[in-house]
Write a structure and sequence with these properties.
280 residues; Helicase, Ruva Protein, domain 3; 2 domains; seven-stranded mixed beta sheet; 9 strands; 36% helix; binds S-adenosylmethionine
Length: 280
């Protein structure tokens, strides 16, 4: 008997439903329910929230979220083989688990959710970054979600929370930190998963800020950051040549040194530059 619910151990669930992991679906399952409960706790108080979970698989994190008191979990799973196992969880938590079979990249979950909403997922690695970018770039801010608690490969997690001056600092750090507080809350070795992936993983918790940390036009900021980091070893006056004909003047007006490189520029500096470039 496990310590979080009356349901069978995940190993037995996987065996019963013949859920052999498929690499093509990024399937690395968490089997330790104490660990999935710990991840669920990082998502905060869920008792008044609907929780969106992408890729529940055999349901380890789903059970953690429900055991931690989530008002409702909406789980989107591409692999139909997992549905019977998820139905058993739904039966143990009547009215609190909705499952949609399908591709999370194709489904708009909003129609199925009632605010306040939090997102918590052990993401499939092949679509994790794309989903994160979508959550960070909605048409309107603040977004529909209050927080994201997400498992990534550690290298991706480090890119999300990276500080200027580090190798990992780039577009993802700026995108995430412009409108969120982001921190790594749990580090996990490959052995935490079955089968173990080749790399370590980490859970990142992102909380949506009510408004961006510094003012800037999103499209301009995106373009400037992408262009600057495209040639991250070059000085800004060279890497950003295409951004504006008088780029040196604009860099100086934004308080930046034209001889600096992208990875030395803090978020505030990129926002100041985006504002200068947006001026005609
Ligand atoms: N949450 C489970 C856990 O922690 O053990 C499974 C995590 S596993 C890393 C990723 C899960 O995402 C798998 O169950 C996989 O079938 C599912 N998946 C993969 N691509 C998906 C997609 N595009 N949309 C929804 N689910 C997907």
């Amino acid at each position: 008997m496990n310590t979080i619910d009356q349901l069978p151990a995940l190993r037995d669930v996987i065996e019963k439903h013949d859920l052999r992991a498929r690499k093509s679906l990024g399937q690395n399952f968490l089997l330790d329910l104490n660990l999935t409960s710990k991840i669920a706790r990082q998502a905060g108080d869920l008792s008044q929230c609907d929780v969106l979970e992408i890729g529940p698989g055999p349901g380890g994190l789903t059970r953690g979220l429900l055991a931690q008191g989530a008002r409702k979990v909406l789980a989107i799973e591409k692999d139909a083989r997992c549905l019977p196992a998820l139905a058993e969880i739904g039966a143990a938590y009547p009215g609190r688990l909705d499952v949609i079979e399908g591709d999370a990249l194709e489904i708009d979950p909003l129609a199925y959710l009632t605010p306040p909403i939090r997102v918590a997922s052990n993401l499939p690695y092949n679509v994790g970054t794309e989903l994160l970018i979508r959550w960070l770039t909605p048409k309107q801010w603040p977004p529909y979600w209050q927080s994201l608690t997400l498992m990534f490969q550690r290298e991706v997690a480090q890119r999300i929370v990276a500080e200027p001056g580090s190798k990992a600092y780039g577009r993802l750090a700026i995108l995430a930190q412009w409108r969120c507080d982001a921190r790594i809350v749990i580090n996990l070795p490959p052995e935490a998963f079955s089968p173990p992936p080749k790399v370590s993983s980490a859970v990142v918790h992102l909380t949506a800020l009510p408004e961006p940390r510094f003012p800037a036009d999103f499209k301009t900021l995106e373009r400037v950051v992408a262009t600057a980091f495209n040639q991250r070893r070059k000085m800004l006056r060279a890497s950003l040549k295409s951004a504006a004909p008088d780029i040196e003047d604009r860099l100086i007006a934004a308080g930046l040194k034209p001889t600096d490189r992208a990875e030395q520029i803090p978020l505030e500096g990129f926002c100041a530059l985006a504002r200068e470039i947006k001026k005609t």
